[in-house]
């Protein structure tokens, strides 16, 4: 018999759409960072066996295991994103050295949330900015995305699958960090932000505005604005797009408008142009930013707005005299960096990007290569704001459609940033000197050019460039990694090609350490150690500075990073390449570059420390980094050396050690321009805490690094101290990480303890959401005077977020028996191969009993652990008709009234899977059944 079941739709859904339609006018971008449940380790999917299980396993919404909507995650750890589980673990000799000897593995995340019925009809999109490394995402039991790169964001249109009201939306993410994409520390987990974006059904898509100013003549600029609209409705629409250029104060400078027909259920691209005269330019010294506000209107009503940032600047690359910013020559003083920091791994709070970039600017760097992957959006915003030029780099060298989409995602997301000057399609690929490599680069470059013709495409090659067919023939700027001996030959052979060093140096040093003992894994900080393929910092800059045709350098690296512990392996767990250590404390290389790069203020720094106990009379190597003309060295009032400054090599002396005061004086044009003093200190007596900022926002995001030192009785920092420090924190903040820059340290990066390494440690504090008042940090160490630090936590508006709710068990997978005239056995077995006489139905929809008066609703479920142990309560919302409730074939309760009402039944404790049968009786023709949600509390 064929069953005819009439669906009486929950009336809300249709009328709701129509009613809400007039108020769909603004986008909301809500943070989805809070309240994730996390499980470390894999949860294998249950084996699928049998007819019915196999059948339903293949159906939408029916994912099993930890991807199922009703999976019990109540005992999982609750945390906020960004999260990197690898950094929480111990350093382990059995793990990969490249990943900093950190175990990575597999983890699961789940998040339940509600969507207001008022949002019906809106376009809803989930956004994940970065998950390391591979992941599969389910929404409401449907697999909705697989992401095969830890460095690309992805966006999931969830509109069709959204549930509203008390029906929960459940995201499950399986993160596979066994796989690696790099040979450096990559972290593990949802390590960048996540979002829920609500928009009008006709809206500007994510990354859908391209508005990058172009200079027309001496005073006129144009911003060609390309806007991509998505219309998720099944009718086309006449829309108006308006774009205004706003200055930093929000004043309108210029605007433009156009009309367009937005196609039904499709994307439409609109173009307009905003003309501007004499804007203020963006430069590294004065990074003036403007905003482009794009407004979408329909029937005179604003239905979407999106604001993007832009900067007015020109970039020019030449084959003979290098790079020009705003027509002024500028040598790129660049650094390469990975994206991790001490204590937090790759889950770097936004404010830490500012901290790191300011350190690089302090060194005199003006450029940054994102090695070897696209960075976070917040990082690029900081580069725009602070004035740092960026080489944005693609991760995977692969020209197949899936990987091309990773590349084009990067360009679409990033092409409005004035900071970005170069797109890099690869780093050091074995196919760089082959025809295949050439063809792949050609294709990748063409894909970039479809999206942006204003910036050149480069590739960082470490060889192959003299092969008959090679990638240099496919790029706009040829990037050399190392191969310094080949710069001139290549330039001579190809005088019209634009060349840059894309990676150089690979010199090693450990901060505050002045001897090299390879057996002990120590490296001196005099810039003497380098990789066989590399050069010292001093050799590198000399080679590059003396070649005007080169755009500049990109030092490997600005900061140390976890992993790739060259030139060592176990027990060294961190890299040694940085000009700053993992915490951002300067090494000698930092001062070398300051002296080489900074022209507008005097620089003078001397190493080493002056605490050489028991070494009286022994010659100590002293190195001065200065941009003066001459440096004089004075020990305890006596001149011990004087040299003309060698601007590349810097200056060194062997000075017989005498405890006391070592001074350096810098002279230019015969006048003293700089002075540096270092003194022999006494024993440490007290701790000093110095925050990077004295005030942070109480938004739960803002984080501040605090420098930890010890001082002697005269208040002088003891640079040789390696004492243990313990921290106690009070107030609305957390310690989110600790570090000390020692690549050989195996101390935990989480917790509240850390030793100083050569006089320094770092503790990173982050406000709690709703934070107001003060945080108080106490640092203590046996025998020393403790330090107290207060940081003001400024009340700040909450970051608009998706509310965190306590998940509850919803029974939403039901089978409905045929409707019959005679009372059926409510516990009748369903035949194993019967996929048709019982219909799968969700709760929340009543049925018309046109063929009789009886029907059975059946659901199998596993109660949450606590409910298995102590029992629970089943709540039937809007149960309609008379009903018998059976659990595991035992009658639990009877509802005698026909009327629709909420009905609750206590269920006894019991382990494992349970079977619930609801026998409904009503008058033929009536609607009856599970008229609302069924929840177990
Ligand atoms: C380069 C590579 C970098 C890093 C560096 C170490 O070849 O591009 O990622 O491994 O060597 O010297």
Automatic annotation (TrEMBL):
Protein name: Beta-galactosidase
Beta-mannosidase-like galactose-binding domain boundaries: 108-177
GO biological process: carbohydrate metabolic process
Cleavable signal peptide: 1-18
One annotated GO molecular function: hydrolase activity, hydrolyzing O-glycosyl compounds
Taxonomic classification: Bacteria, Pseudomonadati, Bacteroidota, Flavobacteriia, Flavobacteriales
InterPro entries assigned to the protein according to its UniProt record, in alphabetical order: Beta-gal/glucu_dom_sf, Beta-mannosidase-like_N2, DUF4982, GalA-like, Galactose-bd-like_sf, GH, GH2_Domain-Containing, Glyco_hydro2_dom5
Species in which this protein is naturally found: Flavobacterium circumlabens
A Pfam family the protein falls into: Glyco_hydro_2_C
Alphabetical keyword list: Glycosidase, Hydrolase, Signal
Domain Glycoside hydrolase family 2 catalytic: 320-395, 400-515
Residues of the Glycoside hydrolase family 2 immunoglobulin-like beta-sandwich domain: 208-313
């Amino acid at each position: 018999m064929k069953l005819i079941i009439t669906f009486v739709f929950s009336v809300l859904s249709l009328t709701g759409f129509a009613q809400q339609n007039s108020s769909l006018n603004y986008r909301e971008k809500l943070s989805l960072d809070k309240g994730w449940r996390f499980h470390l380790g894999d949860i294998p999917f249950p084996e699928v066996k049998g007819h019915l299980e196999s059948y339903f396993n293949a159906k939408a919404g029916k994912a099993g295991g930890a991807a199922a909507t009703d999976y019990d995650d109540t005992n999982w750890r609750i945390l906020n994103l960004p999260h990197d589980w690898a950094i929480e673990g111990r350093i382990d000799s059995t793990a990969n050295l490249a990943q900093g000897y950190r175990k990575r593995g597999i983890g699961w995340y789940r998040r339940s949330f509600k969507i207001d019925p008022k949002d019906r009809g809106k376009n809803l999109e989930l956004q994940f900015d970065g998950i390391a490394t591979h992941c599969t995402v389910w929404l409401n039991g449907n697999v909705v995305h697989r992401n095969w790169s830890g460095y690309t964001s992805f966006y999931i249109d969830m509109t069709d699958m959204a549930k509203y009201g008390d029906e929960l939306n459940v995201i499950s993410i399986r993160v596979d960090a066994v796989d690696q994409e790099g040979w450096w520390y990559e972290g593990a987990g949802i390590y960048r932000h996540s979002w829920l974006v609500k928009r009008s059904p006709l809206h500007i898509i994510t990354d859908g505005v391209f508005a990058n100013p172009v200079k027309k003549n001496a005073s006129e600029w144009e911003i060609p604005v390309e806007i991509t609209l998505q219309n998720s409705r099944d009718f086309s629409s006449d829309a108006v797009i308006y774009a205004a250029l706003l200055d930093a104060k929000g004043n309108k400078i210029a605007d433009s408008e156009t009309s367009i027909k937005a196609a039904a259920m499709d994307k439409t691209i609109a173009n307009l142009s905003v003309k501007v005269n004499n804007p203020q330019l963006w430069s590294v010294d004065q990074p003036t930013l403007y905003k482009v506000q794009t407004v979408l209107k329909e029937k005179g009503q604003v239905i979407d707005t999106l604001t993007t940032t832009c900067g007015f600047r020109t970039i020019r690359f030449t084959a003979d005299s290098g790079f020009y910013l705003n027509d002024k020559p500028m040598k790129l003083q660049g650094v390469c960096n990975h994206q991790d920091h001490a204590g937090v791994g790759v889950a770097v709070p936004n404010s830490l990007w500012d901290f790191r970039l300011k350190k690089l600017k302090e060194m005199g760097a003006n450029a940054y290569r994102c090695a070897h992957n696209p960075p976070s959006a917040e990082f690029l915003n900081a580069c725009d704001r602070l004035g740092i030029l960026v080489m944005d780099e693609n991760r995977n060298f692969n020209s197949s459609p899936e990987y091309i989409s990773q590349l084009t995602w990067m360009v679409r997301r990033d092409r409005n940033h004035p900071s970005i000057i170069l797109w890099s399609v690869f780093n050091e690929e074995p196919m760089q000197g082959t025809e295949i490599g050439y063809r792949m680069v050609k294709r990748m470059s063409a894909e970039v050019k479809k999206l942006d013709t204003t910036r050149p495409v480069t590739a960082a090659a470490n060889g192959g460039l003299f092969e008959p067919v090679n990638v240099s023939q496919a790029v706009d700027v040829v990037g050399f990694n190392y191969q310094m001996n080949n710069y001139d030959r290549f330039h001579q052979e190809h005088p019209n090609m634009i060349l840059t060093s894309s990676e150089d140096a690979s010199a090693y040093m450990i901060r505050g350490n002045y001897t090299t003992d390879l057996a002990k894994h120590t490296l001196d900080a005099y810039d003497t150690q380098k990789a066989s393929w590399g050069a010292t910092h001093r050799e590198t800059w000399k080679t590059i500075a003396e070649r005007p045709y080169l755009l500049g350098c990109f030092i490997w690296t600005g900061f140390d990073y976890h992993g790739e512990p060259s030139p060592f392996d176990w027990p060294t767990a961190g890299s040694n390449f940085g000009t700053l250590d993992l915490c951002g404390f300067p090494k000698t290389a930092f001062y070398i570059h300051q002296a080489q790069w900074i022209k507008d203020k005097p620089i003078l720094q001397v190493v080493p420390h002056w605490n050489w106990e028991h070494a009286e009379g022994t010659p100590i190597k002293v190195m001065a980094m200065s941009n003066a003309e001459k440096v004089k060295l004075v020990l305890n009032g006596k001149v011990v050396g004087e040299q003309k400054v060698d601007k590349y090599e810097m200056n060194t002396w062997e000075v017989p050690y005498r405890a006391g005061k070592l001074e350096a004086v810098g002279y230019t044009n015969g006048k003293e321009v700089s002075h540096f003093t270092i003194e022999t200190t006494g024993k440490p007596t007290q701790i000093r805490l110095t925050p990077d900022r004295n005030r942070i926002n109480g938004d739960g995001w803002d984080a501040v690094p605090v420098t930890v030192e010890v001082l002697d009785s005269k208040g002088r920092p003891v640079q040789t101290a390696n004492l243990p420090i313990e921290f106690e924190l009070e107030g609305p903040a957390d310690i989110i990480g600790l570090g000390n820059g020692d690549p050989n340290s195996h101390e935990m990066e989480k917790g509240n303890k850390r030793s100083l390494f050569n006089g320094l440690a770092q503790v990173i504090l982050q406000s709690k959401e709703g934070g107001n008042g003060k945080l108080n940090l106490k640092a203590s160490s046996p025998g020393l005077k403790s330090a107290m630090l207060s940081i003001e936590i400024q009340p700040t508006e909450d970051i608009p977020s998706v509310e965190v709710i306590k998940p509850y068990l919803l029974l939403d997978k039901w089978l409905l028996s045929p409707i019959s005239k005679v009372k059926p056995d409510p516990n009748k077995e369903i035949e194993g191969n019967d996929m048709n006489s019982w219909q799968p139905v969700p709760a929340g929809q009543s049925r018309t009993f046109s063929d009789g008066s009886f029907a059975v609703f059946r659901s199998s479920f596993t109660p949450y652990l606590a409910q298995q142990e102590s029992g629970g309560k089943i709540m039937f919302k809007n149960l309609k008709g008379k009903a018998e409730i059976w659990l595991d074939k035992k009658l639990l309760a009877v509802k005698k009234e026909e009327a629709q009402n909420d009905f609750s039944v206590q269920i006894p404790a019991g382990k494992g899977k349970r079977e619930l049968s609801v026998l409904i009786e009503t008058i033929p023709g009536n609607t009856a059944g599970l008229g609302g949600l069924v929840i177990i509390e």
